Amino acid sequence: MLNTVQAPQVEIPLGVRLRLGRAAVQAVADEAGADILHIKGDAVAPELRPVVRPGTDVDILARPSHVARLDAALRARGWTVYSTFTYGSPFGHAQTYTHEQWGYLDLHRFFPGIEADPAVAFETLWSGRIRHHIAGIDGAAPAVAAQAVILLLNDARSRRSADADALWQEVGDVRRSEIGSLVALLHAEVAFAAATGDLESQRSASSYALWKVITTGGSRAAEWRARVRAAPNLWQAARIVARAPAVNVEHLAHRLGRRPTRREIVMAFFARPVTAVVQFVAGLRERR
Q1: pLDDT digit string (tens) for 139-154?
Q2: Cα–Cα dist 222/79, whole Å
Q3: Beta-ladder partners of 141
Q4: What is the DSSP code (8-state) at residue 259?
Q5: What distance in Å separates the CA atoms of residue 24 and residue 228, rounded to the nearest whole number?
Q6: At CA 192, angle to CA 239 and CA 110, rounded to 5?
């Protein structure tokens, strides 16, 4: 009898896996006829981030009218929804997927901090797109100035003020002028001010309170109040108010590592007021 030797398993480096994952997503988008822009991670131009930061997932921004067809195509190609637009973040901007081979994907239908109409904003970014070659497949990324805007807004949301300061100082006067023009076109003044340490100049803006909470911290109650204030219309504000008491079942499932039972959801629902009171009292003590 022949002795069989099991082949050793080789782990693919994270950066390589993410790059192949980007190529796989681009192939799905091409097949579905969906326009996407690759953002963040290894899609960033070297002049903005000389040292590549591959991150932990693939990030793409899709044309809003193509999100539904791309979602269907991703599910058909083995991608599973991990968290939905509704519960993924205070902005409802991205839906996260997982894949057995490629890991995590964040599908953005708009980018947090850009307050222009999502369709108009995407077209603005798409019109200035540049070629992004990924593992043998051609894709597209925003222009370098647009990439800088996205990085600055992302640094503000992630509370990475040192990264935002370094980027803003290093881009140079010409690039700063291009960035400023894009910020105005995309109506991203509030988030940009948060990124560059000038948020107080935007106190009169409806989204000021939300970016204040995001960048400096605050209770869940303060965040929900800020989300209502930042809503673009009364209908959206009403939806936020209606959703506030609900349990984030996706978050609960991720914390438990399984789908929660009905009893666990009910218990989490009644625990929310207790948490709110504790946060309120803690906030009073901090103010004192």
Answers
A1: 999 999 999 999 999 9
A2: 35
A3: 130
A4: P
A5: 38
A6: 45
Please choose, from the candidates 258, 241, 242, 239, the residue with its C-alpha nearest in 3D space to the C-alpha of residue 250: 258
Cα dihedral sign, 125-211-237-223:
positive
pLDDT tens-digit readout, 54-96: 678 899 999 999 999 999 999 999 999 998 888 767 788 999 9
Residue 82: left (phi > 0), alpha (psi -120 to 50), or beta?
Answer: alpha
What is the distance between the terminal CA atoms of the chain, rounded to a whole angstrom?
80
User: pTM here?
Assistant: 0.81
- The maximal CA–CA distance of the chain, rounded, in angstroms, is 81
Sign of the dihedral defined by the CA atoms of residues 61, 55, 89, 194, in that order: negative
Cα distance between residue 104 and residue 108, in whole Å: 13
Contact 141, 147 (CB under 8 A): yes
Contact (CB, 8 A) for 106 and 60: yes
Strand pairing report for 57-62 and 103-108: parallel
Judging by DSSP bridges, how do beta strands 137-141 and 130-134 pair with one another? antiparallel
**DSSP SS3 for 209:** helix
Structure tokens at 30: 């091409």
Nearest partner of 188 among 278, 77, 81, 114, judged by Cα? 114
| Closest among 111, 202, 191 to 152, alpha carbons compared | 191
CATH 3.40.140.10 describes domain 1-201 = no
| In contact, 219 and 285? CB cutoff 8 Å | no
Residues 6+ apart with CB under 8 A from 131: 138, 139, 140, 141
Cα four-point dihedral sign 55, 48, 165, 224: negative
Q: Are 221 and 90 in contact (CB under 8 A)?
A: no
Looking at residue 243, its amino acid is R
User: How many angstroms separate the CA atoms of 13 and 5, rounded?
Assistant: 24
